[in-house]
Design brief:
With 364 residues, the protein is of the alpha/beta class. The chain has helices at 2-5, 8-22, 51-70, 93-104, 121-137, 175-181, 266-274, 297-303, 306-319, 331-342, and strands at 32-41, 82-87, 108-114, 151-155, 184-187, 205-208, 221-223, 235-237, 242-245, 251-254, 257-258, 285-292, 324-328. It has a single domain (2-358), classed as Glycoside hydrolase/deacetylase (TIM Barrel). Helix 3 packs parallel to helix 4. The N and C termini lie far apart (47 Å).
Length: 364
């Protein structure tokens, strides 16, 4: 029903992109490595909760997630690894201390999430610089070869680079350059369909092109490919988006969102893999980034309970087909492997989990 509320023009834009992406799918013919990253838009103060409720939500993940992780392993024997994209505007030291315990146990990493509205580039830069400093005090950000703190990013309300038609929930046309200049290595915001913010580029890892100071500059891009690396901008790393079977009318928008009402199933996992998101020239490495909002109680109930187990059981079934190797990774590790592919690396992608951005200090 949500899709029906969209204008035909908007729905058509990403559908055309999806159809075009079908031509880019390549079956490697042999073993394939599926790199699975669960990126959580983790908002402890969701629905205007008070500080104590927020702390209880974070504490629940700190207590319960290790039990879930211990019950599952990927092909190499590694447990699931959760990527918490923490909203800077909800910063409380005690929240990050709880998440740092999961990171220290090798079960999670923390990146940056941000909701902002009617903003400007100067204020955005200060917000991001302060946020980076806050996370670094907790040992939660990795670093590049120059020792600079780096972070992955998800935009609140999907409104990257002022991409809403009404200009709400951002305000900064030149957001991509500000992100890059403050240490962002990649954006993990999309897909957002059926929301109006969904770009026409789908199921891709790509470098945004054109004038990056303009709004919606991520609407144009060059697919990542072996032999080509751009060092002057962030990378856009999308999750799966498709029309899939199911739903009230026999079709559904599959956007990789895990919710209490729409948990993972074997069919959904197969759909994610089928989009074959990869770096051109390295089709045997499949990048599977899905997302959730894990802090609210109902979502946590599912993700830390039956829904979470169903997810990893479905992934395990995928890895049991005789040709698929499953690898649990964080957002940082997903980026590192993509960059390694662009630098021409091949073979076992787990050799490149720390290829460019090192693990956060708290994990070492």
């Amino acid at each position: 029903m949500l899709a029906l509320a969209l204008s035909g023009r908007h729905l058509g834009r990403w559908l055309v992109g999806w159809v075009r992406s079908l031509a880019d799918r390549v079956d490697p013919g042999g073993p394939r490595h599926v790199l699975f990253a669960l990126c959580d838009h983790f908002e402890p103060l969701w629905a205007h909760a008070d500080a104590s409720t927020g702390l209880a939500r974070v504490e629940r993940w700190r207590r319960a997630y290790p039990d879930l992780a211990r019950a599952h392993r990927d092909t190499g024997g590694r447990p699931p690894r959760h990527s918490f994209f923490f909203p800077l505007e909800q910063y409380r030291p005690e929240y990050l201390e709880e998440l740092a315990e999961l990171a220290a146990a090798g079960l999670a990493e923390v990146e940056i999430h941000l909701h902002h509205d009617h903003d400007d580039a100067t204020h955005l830069r200060r917000t991001l610089e302060h946020g980076v400093a806050d996370l670094c005090r907790h040992g939660l950000l990795g670093r590049d070869a120059d020792g600079r703190a780096r972070y992955g990013f998800i935009h609140g309300d999907w409104s990257l680079a002022n991409c809403r038609r009404d200009g709400r929930h951002c305000g900064v046309d030149a957001e991509l350059p500000v992100l890059f200049e403050t240490g962002c290595y990649a954006d993990f915001t999309f897909p957002s369909a059926p929301d109006q913010t969904q770009p026409a580029i789908v199921d891709s890892i790509y470098w945004p092109t054109g004038d990056l100071r303009r709004a919606r500059s991520h609407e144009r891009g060059q697919r990542a490919r072996v032999g080509v690396v751009q060092n002057d901008r962030i990378l856009c790393m999308q999750g799966p988006l498709a029309l899939a079977s199911g739903g009230r009318f026999g079709l559904r928008i599959e956007n990789g969102a895990l919710t209490a009402r729409d948990p993972a199933t074997a069919m959904r996992v197969r759909s994610w893999v089928a989009q074959c998101i990869h770096v051109d020239g390295r089709p045997e490495w499949i990048f599977m980034k899905v997302h959730t909002h894990g802090a609210p109680e109902a979502q946590a109930d599912a993700l830390l309970g039956s829904g979470g187990h169903a997810l990893h059981q479905a992934l395990g079934m995928l890895a049991g087909d005789g040709r698929t190797l499953l690898h649990y990774v964080t957002a940082r590790e997903l980026f590192n492997v993509a960059l390694a592919a662009m630098h021409g690396r091949s073979g076992d992608p787990t050799s490149y989990l720390d290829f460019s951005i090192t693990p956060p200090p708290v994990t070492t």
